[in-house]
Design brief:
mainly alpha
């Protein structure tokens, strides 16, 4: 006899062992007449379960789906209706064990044709989105302000809290656009429901109970397809919102780097202006200095030599009559 609280406790005590999963799966299949209540309780438990427990409950659903002798039973139908959303919600936890379990189950469902190719692809897209979120990608700007900022600190100047790279952003946008194209095709197909399934005025066209049952079956199929499309569109809307968020984050990162570059350009200009003034002063002062002796021509200042290396040329050149000065530094 099926009792709701008894089943709930069974779910809570379910372990990951094959014996535990198969025993509860068999018990569940023996209580098919209570499928609606049972799957409702399963949904409640998996939603609030910790990651480790979620994997156990997913294994239970998988075992029931694969071992149900009648693929049209309420157990199978209700599990297939619930799993796409449950899988996407579980993926959003980002838990590595949950993601690995789901990846394995999706492969099984694809091989056994438990779900259609479009539903399988939707679940895979949700997994890809989570993987992108978990990539340890950072934008690092190695900027030095006139040699006064150490490279190790330069990233802090920019703010090394950025978590969006251009490559990851491009990958996410590409995935989203591909999903959008697929969903539009599915939407057009699902939204064109025959009038007989959407209007009460068509009731007078029913000829007998058998005809009514056929229409009910068609209506259930249309409803299932619409629910799947709605769920996929909601996931797509969430994915697009993530893209918008990442674009805004990336824009903020680039804007921050631009502001720092502008500040550095201003400081470079100021330093160049000061260097130009000092250069003029040196030219004016050189007229009062004595000519170097032959032994002094090759002298170098260690301070400038260390700073500029081979770029420093201390040769003497005549530029104005009676004025001798060094070549450009």
């Amino acid at each position: 006899m099926f009792k709701a609280e008894d089943f709930r406790k069974r779910l809570q005590n379910l372990s990951q062992s094959q014996q535990s999963v198969q025993a509860l799966s068999l018990w569940l299949l023996h209580n098919k007449k209570n499928a609606s209540e049972a799957i409702s309780i399963w949904n409640e438990e998996i939603e609030k379960a910790v990651p480790e427990k979620k994997t156990n409950l997913l294994y239970l659903a998988n075992d029931a789906l694969l071992n149900d002798a009648k693929s049209t039973s309420d157990i199978t139908i209700l599990f297939k209706e619930s799993l796409p959303k449950v899988v996407k919600d579980a993926l959003r936890t980002g838990h590595s064990k949950v993601m690995a379990t789901i990846e394995k189950l999706i492969k099984i469902w694809e091989e056994r044709k438990v779900f259609s190719a479009s539903v399988v692809e939707d679940m895979r897209i949700a997994g890809k989105e989570v993987n992108l979120r978990n990539k340890p990608t950072f934008i690092k700007f190695q900027l030095q302000v006139l040699g006064n900022v150490e490279p190790s600190n330069a990233t802090n100047e920019v703010g090394e809290t950025a978590t969006v790279t251009l490559q990851a952003l491009e990958e996410l946008l590409k995935t989203t656009m591909e999903a959008a194209e697929r969903e539009q095709e599915r939407y057009k197909e699902a939204i064109n429901v025959p009038r007989e399934l959407t209007s009460k005025d068509s009731l007078n066209t029913l000829r007998n109970k058998s005809h009514a049952n056929l229409r009910m079956s068609a209506m259930q199929s249309a409803r299932t397809k619409l629910e799947q499309v709605k769920s996929s569109l909601m996931a797509l809307a969430s994915q697009r919102a993530s893209c918008v968020h990442d674009l805004q984050t990336y824009k903020g990162q680039v804007s921050a780097s631009i502001d720092i570059c502008r500040q550095q350009i201003t400081e470079c200009r100021e330093q160049l202006k000061q260097a130009k003034n000092v250069k003029r002063a040196i030219v004016d002062h050189m007229a009062s200095l004595p000519d170097p002796t032959p032994s002094q021509l090759d002298e170098k200042d260690p301070q400038f030599d260390a700073l500029f290396g081979d770029e420093l040329d201390l040769g003497i050149v005549e530029e104005e009559p009676g004025v001798k000065r060094q070549k450009k530094i």
